[in-house]
Design a protein that fits this description.
Blueprint: E1 2-6, H1 17-38, E2 49-55, E3 59-65, H2 71-87, H3 95-111, E4 114-118, E5 126-130, E6 143-158, E7 164-169, E8 172-177, H4 180-187, E9 193-203, E10 208-217, H5 225-241, H6 246-254
Parallel strand pairs: 8-10
Antiparallel strand pairs: 1-3, 1-4, 2-3, 4-5, 6-7, 6-9, 7-8, 9-10
Helix pairs in contact: 1-2, 1-3
């Protein structure tokens, strides 16, 4: 999977690390959301996208899933995004996909470049293009759904006919629905901060969650920052150690 930006003055140096990170995050989020929508049995905790190379041909980003097991899923949904752009038809993607298209279009305007969705480094494999001259009529949704995680204080669990769990969120209360087993598990954490993964229905105008369907509960305890860093270091530290000097690594990648 390749996303390539082309233009007279475009090179890897045209993008800051912050711009690149924001773009990669949106690509990953949009594809994971599509995979979850079309393949709900896939465990999204096993999904993730890696930037495996940056070619010094304009600015060419080579992307692969962290696990080869999901290679075909990622490629097919990458095509779904590109095909939506080519057809100017967005019913097959959700809000995260629309947000990605907006971000790419914004980049083409600011940097006066074109963006190409490609299957390989060969230009003939291009199957979708966004340019500054495009007039994208993206839908304005009143409500949209996405798979996400939320965190907040659990302030209430109850109800007979329609039980629910209430969380205080940064934009007010969120009413969450789930199973009896999930409510029983959550009850142990009443008036504590909890994390939930599931399907959120958002109000587009108000940018707040209208309702939330629980799919899983985030397992974590009340630990100090030093304890959290120790756990992360023990679990993932070896991967960073193998990379050596991170600054030098990014310089080498961006010079290719």
């Amino acid at each position: 999977m390749i996303l390539r930006f082309t233009g007279s003055d475009i090179s890897p140096k045209s993008f800051t690390i912050k711009e690149l990170s924001k773009l990669l995050e949106k690509i990953d989020k949009s594809i994971i959301s599509l995979i979850h929508k079309n393949n709900p049995t896939v465990n999204i905790n096993n999904l993730g996208l890696s930037l495996v190379n940056i070619y010094n041909k304009s600015n060419t980003l080579c992307l692969e899933p962290v696990s080869g097991e999901y290679d075909s899923l990622y490629k097919s949904n990458f095509h779904t995004l590109g095909n939506s752009i080519s057809a100017r038809e967005y019913t097959d993607i959700d809000q995260s996909g629309i947000d990605l298209i907006k971000e790419i279009y914004k980049i083409t305007l600011e940097k006066e470049c074109n963006a190409r969705f490609q299957d390989s480094s060969d230009e003939s494999s291009t199957f979708a293009t966004i340019s500054p001259n495009d007039e994208l009529q993206l839908p304005q949704l009143h409500e949209y759904t996405e798979y996400t995680s939320i965190y907040g204080e659990l302030i209430r669990i109850g109800g007979i006919k329609e039980p629910s769990a209430w969380l205080t969120h940064r934009k007010g209360h969120v009413i969450c629905t789930g199973t009896k087993q999930q409510y029983q598990k959550l009850a142990q954490h009443l008036f504590n901060i909890v994390g939930l993964k599931g399907i959120a229905t958002w109000s587009f105008e108000e940018q707040r969650i209208l309702k939330f369907k629980i799919e899983s509960i985030v397992e974590y305890g009340n630990k100090s920052p030093s304890e959290v860093m120790k756990i992360l270091r023990e679990k993932y530290g070896k991967f960073w150690s193998e990379l050596g000097d991170i600054d030098e690594l990014f310089k080498e990648i961006r010079s290719r």
